[in-house]
Specification:
There is one protein chain. By secondary structure, this protein is an alpha/beta fold. It folds into three domains: about 45 residues, no CATH class; about 130 residues, Rossmann fold, CATH 3.40.50; about 130 residues, Response regulator (Rossmann fold), CATH 3.40.50.2300. The protein contains twelve helices and twelve strands. Helix 7 links the parallel strand 3 and strand 4. Helix 1 packs across helix 3 and helix 8 runs parallel beside helix 9.
Length: about 325
């Protein structure tokens, strides 16, 4: 026999049980500063015992704010985005905000669905890693008056807030380090077009131009989510390389695995990644990587979004560029 649904406990139920008015109960559960501490403690204890759960939808209708942010990322399986999610959640909690996460797989249709779902949930703001196949989703957010900050990428022809890394400098540092270590045939393994891929490649090219006698080439993958094995096998047969600069640590680790499968000792090929996820995660491969301040990144993203939610529209669009540095490990030792 089907069990009857249990009745949802309301503010009125808590008020009846405690002898206070609905308004007093509401203020106690919101931790209003103008209410006696003992009164708040008694009401909150009773509400917990009764199983009262805040009705976020009703609260949002009353206040106009949902206290929820949407975080839309391109590849949640990438450890970098896992670290970013944690940083954003921690920063958002300081403002009493909850975060819901969407994954797009760099697919514009999935990105559009994520943005529309976020709007339907009445989130107060959106943090978005755009696939950059189209800017229509961002324009929709702007038309709806929904604050949005882009993560790590930007559109040259679109006014939008963004928090970025100094990708050009990161690509330069990676390339310069490899040439200084004595590598002479260097392959850059790049992601499909986005602004960070373009700028990292530009920095790498600048470092190569400063190193006479060094041969280099940049190969762009068909997908940022795979395809490394086929590309490396083909390129190594055409002309053996002695070092790789990968667009991300995830691609660098896939490259190391591929080299081993091809019978090439990974230690024979210099390897540099980007993101320095090893600063947060223990990995078996000591990977040299372009480092970015992950805590500072999360803080900058949430802080800028909170400013926009608070209707601070000064200095729009704001493009915050965070510095990059190189963390050297054994993967580039000769």
């Amino acid at each position: 026999m089907q069990q009857p649904k249990s009745k949802r406990i309301t503010l009125k139920d808590v008020a009846t049980a405690t002898g206070y008015s609905v308004n007093t109960v509401s203020k106690a559960l919101r931790d209003a500063p103008d209410l006696n501490t003992q009164t708040k403690a008694a009401i909150c204890a009773a509400a917990r015992e009764m199983g009262y759960v805040v009705n976020d939808m009703a609260s949002a209708l009353r206040s106009g704010y949902s206290n929820v942010l949407a975080l839309i990322v391109s590849d949640i399986s990438n450890p970098f985005f896992g670290i970013l999610c944690k940083e954003v959640e921690q920063q958002a909690a300081k403002y009493n905000y909850t975060v819901i996460v969407f994954n797009t797989e760099e697919d514009s249709a999935r990105e559009d669905r994520a943005i529309r779902t976020a709007l339907s949930k009445n989130v107060d703001g959106v943090l978005l890693t755009p696939s950059q196949h189209s800017a229509e989703g961002i324009r929709l957010l702007q038309e709806m008056g929904k604050p949005c900050v882009l993560i790590g990428r930007f559109f040259a022809d679109l006014s939008a807030d963004a928090v970025l890394f100094d990708d050009e400098n990161g690509g330069y540092l990676a390339g310069k380090h490899l040439t200084e270590q004595g590598y002479r045939n260097i392959l850059m393994l790049n992601a499909p077009y986005n602004s960070s891929a373009r700028d990292r490649a530009a920095g790498f090219a600048r470092a190569m131009a400063e190193a006479p006698g060094v041969r280099s080439r940049t190969i762009t993958l068909d997908s940022p989510l795979g395809g490394v094995a086929q590309v490396l096998s083909s390129e190594y047969q055409k002309e053996p390389f002695d070092a790789i600069f990968a667009y991300s640590d995830l691609l660098a680790m896939e490259a190391a695995s591929t080299l081993e499968q091809l019978g090439i000792c990974p230690g024979k090929i210099g390897l540099v990644g980007f993101d320095d996820i090893q600063s947060r995660l223990s990995l078996p491969m000591p990977l040299t990587s372009v480092s970015v301040g992950k805590a500072a990144f999360g803080q900058a993203l949430v802080s800028l979004l909170m400013r926009r939610i608070g209707e601070d529209n000064g200095d729009f669009p704001s493009r915050i560029v965070l510095p990059t540095s190189l963390t050297i490990r054994k993967s580039t030792e000769k």
